[in-house]
Design goal:
Layout (H helix, E strand, L loop, with lengths): L1 E4 L3 H6 L1 H4 L8 H12 L4 E7 L47 E13 L3 E11 L8 H15 L4 E4 L6 H9 L15
Parallel strand pairs: 4-5
Antiparallel strand pairs: 1-2, 2-3, 3-4
Length: 185
């Protein structure tokens, strides 16, 4: 298992199969351009690659591309060694490794929260859920927030995502507010 920041177009595109399970309204053709636009505003995309644990009722992940040799671990970004293993990519990627968990996030500063890390998108591929991958990504994100001197860690979660809410609460997060919106178009 390793977690890295998606920098190249290929790395970003490899995140689509998992992230599309959370954001199905974004087509594969729109995905790279949308991520690149968001990156101009400070958005970052992290991905966890590993070998999914097979189960009797699981179906194969859509992404069958082996992890590129050029995949960079995010250790150079001030992260704890324990969550950025290995320090250097292996010389040959395993053909069974897949992008299992994806997180899109940004840093911010406001009066209410001080300096914070906000998670826009966090998803584990359906076939890899309840295997600890989401917990590892959440821990990595919190370590990143600490390494960047954040005061708080925030995310929103849709009301329909009850299993995700139980997961966040098990991980020590609290429900702190309602989020209101109005569709303008």
């Amino acid at each position: 298992m390793r977690i890295a920041l998606a920098i190249t177009d290929e790395e970003i595109q490899r995140c689509y199969p998992a992230l599309s399970q959370l954001r199905p309204h974004i087509s594969e053709g729109q995905f790279l351009e949308r991520i690149r636009q968001q990156m101009q505003g400070g958005y970052e995309l992290a991905y966890l690659i590993g070998v999914p644990t097979p189960s009797a009722d699981s179906t194969p992940l859509v992404d069958t591309t082996p992890v590129a040799d050029s995949t960079r671990a995010a250790a150079g970004n001030g992260l704890a060694q324990s969550v950025s293993e290995p320090q250097e990519p292996p010389s040959r990627a395993s053909e069974t490794e897949r992008v299992l968990t994806v997180a899109g996030f940004r840093m911010g500063l406001n009066l209410a929260w001080g300096k914070y890390l906000y998670v826009d998108d966090l998803v584990t591929a359906e076939v890899a859920r309840s295997s600890g991958w989401g917990r590892q990504m959440l821990s990595w994100l919190m370590d990143l927030a600490r390494s960047r001197s954040c005061d708080q860690f925030h995310l929103d979660s849709g009301l329909q995502r009850r299993e995700a809410h139980r997961f966040y609460e098990r991980e020590g997060m609290e429900i702190s507010s309602y989020h209101f919106f109005k569709q303008l178009h």
